[in-house]
Amino acid sequence: MPVIALLALALALAAILDRPSTRSPAGARASGSTASPGAVAGEAPAASTASSTSGFDGAALPASTPPHDFTLADQAGRPVSLSRYRGEVTILAFLYSTCGPTCIVIADQIRGALDELPRPVPVLFVSADPAADTPARVSRFLAQVSLTGRVRYLSGSQAALRPIWRAYGVVPATSGRTAFDRSAAVLLLDRSGRERVIFGLEQLTPEGLAHDVRKLQ
User: Fold this and answer.
1) CATH number of the structural domain spanning residue 67
2) DSSP code of 88?
3) Fewer CB within 10 Å, N or C, the chain?
4) DSSP for 96-158?
5) Quick check: is 97 in a domain?
6) Contact 95, 63 (CB under 8 A)
7) How confident is the model at residue 54, as a pLDDT?
8) 85: domain range?
9) How confident is the model at residue 21, as a pLDDT?
10) Is residue 6 part of a domain?
11) pTM above 0.85, yes or no
């Protein structure tokens, strides 16, 4: 009987050690690269490797890349430039008001992080589908996720948004909902406006996002 028990224990340990890790990296790309529209979150070894030693809950991105500045109009039609948030850690996400569960989850997790932080931080939502993001739909979406008055929802023409999507490796809604859902992520920009941390949907939690905001502050 002892021999049989030892054999069973050995087989159990072998099975555990041979089991692949279920934790996937959150990084969509190494910061500074110009990702193609088909880039999928979780494909950048550089980002995921950095996060393992960085102390961030999300995937750390290199700090050497200059910021991608842009100017778009918010939900009230007011011009908003990314450069105005220099000196503040900023949460940046690309979504659209009709994308369904994926965008609702992103918004809910960001709202949870804002609730955890001792003081507000800037949150910028940039449209991934300007045709869908009419003022009425944006207003309904922000009310649905309880973020009215807490975020700036930025949009513009396809021509204005396309270089921004490209700079941040965003898959727009025109590529299909499945492609957008797979690549959806939340970025943290440091005080200089540089991408420093990226959260894929599997890694995104209010606690982790709030932790990394505080770390960058």
Assistant:
1) 3.40.30.10
2) S
3) N
4) -TTS-HHHHHHHHHHHHHHHHSSS---EEEEES-TTT--HHHHHHHHHHTT-TTTSEEEB--H
5) yes
6) no
7) 80
8) 24-216
9) 33
10) no
11) no
